[in-house]
Write a structure and sequence with these properties.
The protein is α/β, with parallel strands linked by helices. The chain contains 10 helices and 13 strands. The strands form 2 sheets. Strands 1, 2, 3, 4, 5, 6, 7, 10, 12 and 13 form a 10-stranded mixed beta sheet that branches. A 3-stranded antiparallel beta sheet has the order 9-8-11. Strand 2, helix 3 and strand 3 form a beta-alpha-beta unit. Helix 2 packs across helix 5. The N terminus is likely disordered.
C-alpha cells in the first residue's frame, strides 16, 4: 500500500527489478510517474543520470553519491537509472540502501557498456522527461567534483552535448575527455584537453557527459549494437554529422583513473585475443559497424590497417626485449 501511495503521489522510496528489456516490474523511486513522458516545460530542469555497472559496488555507490552532491551544489534535481549487468557483489543491495532516487535495471552479465547504457537511456526516454531536462552519462568509476555538474549545466546554453574532462586522482593530469579527428583512418583522433574555455570537439569519452533532452531525441540514442567501446565515439560523430554542438569543459569536472595497460609480458596471442575481444579496441563487429557508418569507402582497408599496425607494434615490442 505504501509503495502504491508513493507512485500515486510522487513521494517515497520503493524499488523493483526490471529485466533487460525494462518491461513490467521495473522498480522506480522518484518525483514523477515513469509511465508517461512529461513533455511540458513548467517544471524545473531535471537531470537523469544513467550508469552501467558490473561487480564494482563500492565504485558505483561512490559515483552516485558524488553526482548527488554535485547536483545539490548546482541546484538541480537528479535521479539515476543504473543498468546492473549481472553483478554478484551486492551492487543492488548497496544501491537500495542509498537515499537517492534510483532505478535499477538488471542484465545477465553479457551486455557490457554500450548495451547497458543504451538500455538505461531508452528507459529514460520512454518513460518520463521534460523538454528542458538533461541526461548525464556517468561512468561508475568517475567521481564528480562538487562543482562538476554545475559547470556542465552552465555550459548547456543551447541544445547539444557538454563533455566533462576528468583527471587522474594522483597526478591531476587529464585522463578522458574529447577528441578531434586527425588523419586518414576513421579511428584516428587526437585528444583535446581543457583550455580554460569550452572547446568544440568531434568525439568524446563517455565518462561524464551531459546531453540535452532535445539532442538525445534528435540523435536517436546510444547505439547498443557496439560491444563495449566505440559507442561514445560514434555518438559524438553522429552529433557532428547533424550539426549538434559538442563542447569540452573548460576545466576537469571530476576524477577517473585510466585502466591499467595490457600486460606486455603476456604471450602475444593472449594480448591479441584481448585486443579483438568484446572489451578490446579491435573487436571486429564493432570496428566494422563504426567504419561502415562513418567512412564506408574505407572498408575493409581501415580494418586491415588497424590489425596490421597492431601486429607491427607487437613485433617491435618483441624485438625491444
Amino acid at each position: 500500500m505504501d509503495a502504491l501511495r508513493a507512485e500515486a503521489t510522487g513521494q517515497g522510496h520503493g524499488r523493483r527489478v526490471a529485466n533487460t528489456a525494462g518491461e513490467v516490474g521495473t522498480e522506480w523511486c522518484g518525483h514523477s510517474s515513469p509511465q508517461t513522458p512529461c513533455t511540458g516545460d513548467a517544471a524545473p530542469r531535471r537531470v537523469h543520470s544513467i550508469l552501467a555497472c558490473h561487480n564494482r559496488a563500492p565504485l558505483t555507490v561512490r559515483a552516485i553519491q558524488s553526482a548527488s552532491r554535485a547536483a545539490k551544489a548546482a541546484g538541480v534535481d537528479i535521479d539515476f537509472v543504473v543498468y546492473d549487468d549481472g553483478s554478484t557483489d551486492g551492487t543492488a543491495v548497496g544501491l537500495q540502501a542509498l537515499p537517492e532516487d534510483i532505478i535499477v535495471l538488471t542484465g545477465s552479465g553479457h551486455a557490457y557498456w554500450a548495451k547497458s547504457m543504451s538500455v538505461a537511456e531508452k528507459f529514460v526516454l520512454d518513460r518520463w522527461w521534460r523538454t528542458d531536462d538533461l541526461i548525464l552519462w556517468l561512468n561508475d568509476d568517475t567521481v564528480l567534483d562538487e562543482t562538476g555538474l554545475g559547470h556542465l549545466v552552465r555550459m548547456m546554453t543551447e541544445p547539444g552535448v557538454c563533455v566533462g574532462a576528468v583527471r587522474s586522482s594522483g597526478s591531476g593530469v587529464p585522463t578522458y575527455g574529447g577528441f578531434k579527428s586527425d588523419g586518414w583512418h576513421p579511428l584516428a583522433f587526437k585528444p583535446v584537453y581543457p583550455q580554460g574555455h569550452p572547446a568544440p570537439v568531434d568525439a568524446f569519452n563517455g565518462n561524464a557527459v551531459l546531453v540535452s533532452m532535445r539532442t538525445a531525441l534528435r540523435v536517436g540514442g546510444i547505439d547498443g549494437e557496439f560491444s563495449h567501446a566505440l559507442a561514445d565515439i560514434d555518438y559524438g560523430l553522429r552529433c557532428r554529422n547533424l550539426g549538434v554542438p559538442v563542447k569540452l569543459s573548460a576545466t576537469t569536472v571530476g576524477v577517473c583513473d585510466t585502466n591499467p595497460p595490457a600486460d606486455s609480458t603476456q604471450p602475444v596471442l593472449s594480448r591479441w585475443r584481448m585486443y579483438v575481444g568484446v572489451k578490446g579496441g579491435g573487436h571486429y563487429s564493432s570496428m566494422r559497424r563504426f567504419v561502415l557508418r562513418h567512412e564506408p569507402s574505407k572498408w575493409p582497408w581501415a580494418m586491415i590497417v588497424s590489425y596490421m599496425a597492431w601486429w607491427a607494434r607487437a613485433a617491435m615490442r618483441g624485438l625491444g626485449r
